[in-house]
Amino acid sequence: MPRSSVLRSQQDASLRQRTNVTLPESLLQEARQLKINLSQACERGLAAEVSEAKAQRWQQENQAAIDDWNAYVEEHGVPLAEYRQF
């Protein structure tokens, strides 16, 4: 587990909230046979979904600025391009 995840888990340990989830029975049985920690697996999956949703929201909120910048570069070129060494 990455260090940041460990630290977050330690910090959030006292802030955890119980919840119920509905999963396909066959998936749940297989996970139990493989001794997968359901709470950790659900947390990792949910964290990934939250991260993806935040990235999509940022992209949508900033799309106008990104489009403006791309139009500027298209018209004027990359600023300081003369100093690029690649």
UniProtKB/TrEMBL annotation:
Q: Name a Pfam family for this protein.
A: CcdA
Q: Which terms are listed as keywords in the entry? A: Toxin-antitoxin system
Q: Report what the protein is called.
A: Post-segregation antitoxin CcdA
